[in-house]
Design a protein that fits this description.
alpha+beta; 2 domains; seven-stranded antiparallel beta sheet; two-stranded antiparallel sheet; 11 strands; globular
């Protein structure tokens, strides 16, 4: 793996960039009803940081997708292998590393063999971890044993939304003051691969239908 962040970022926005100054909107409905027109709300917020989720070549026509960068989940730290380097969540890991060591050791032999047969796989498939950096503020994560200072952030693929901005175009520099960090090439490829897996994995019933 190369450097997580690019030491020589380009002026234009690229897939995976950390940005700031953009709002995210989440439509909300408590009870979907095709007959009711006003049974909804929109929650709007401006996260401290967000990630560009549109491929580099598709950032055009003043529209692109972003996802807020949020604090990591405490559950990540329960797995010793992952807690040593949280960016391991971004790549496929060996079966014995996919669970906390105590849980792996307590698995019945046949369950371990099932994991082993699948080979390397992603864990926390809806998440991508961003490495700590001096340009990103640290925060306190509360867990068993007391709080811990963290600098890593994550993207939840379920939180992606569209943003329209007249100043955004792949052929133009990012709006002044909005681009903070650019991913290194290998990191961007890892994010591309995991996002593709997240959207491309077939449902279990589809697999059974295609391979009876």
């Amino acid at each position: 793996m190369g450097c997580f962040y690019d030491d020589h970022p380009q002026p234009a926005l690229r897939f995976g960039d950390i940005i700031r100054g953009f709002q995210v909107a989440t439509p909300q409905t408590h009870k979907p009803d095709p007959e009711t027109q006003n049974n909804w709300a929109i929650a709007v917020s401006r996260p401290t940081y967000a990630a560009v989720m549109t491929p580099c070549c598709s950032i055009e026509r003043k529209a692109f997708a972003i996802a807020p960068l949020v604090e990591i989940r405490r559950s990540f730290l329960e797995n010793e292998y992952l807690s040593e380097d949280l960016t391991r969540i971004n790549r496929k890991v060996a079966p014995e590393h996919s669970l906390p060591s105590s849980k792996w050791q307590n698995l019945p032999f046949d369950r371990q063999q099932t994991f082993m047969a699948k080979g390397h796989s992603y864990v926390f498939i809806d998440c991508f971890i961003y490495e700590a950096h001096e340009l990103l503020r640290k925060y306190e994560l509360h867990r068993k044993g007391g709080p811990i200072e963290m600098g890593h952030y994550m993207v939840d693929f379920k939180s992606i939304c569209r943003v329209d901005c007249d100043l955004v175009n792949r052929a133009k520099p990012a709006p002044a003051g909005t681009k903070i960090l650019q991913l290194g090439m290998s990191t961007r490829q890892a994010m591309r691969e995991k996002l593709s897996f997240y959207y491309g994995r077939p449902a279990e019933e589809d697999v059974l239908y295609m391979h009876p």
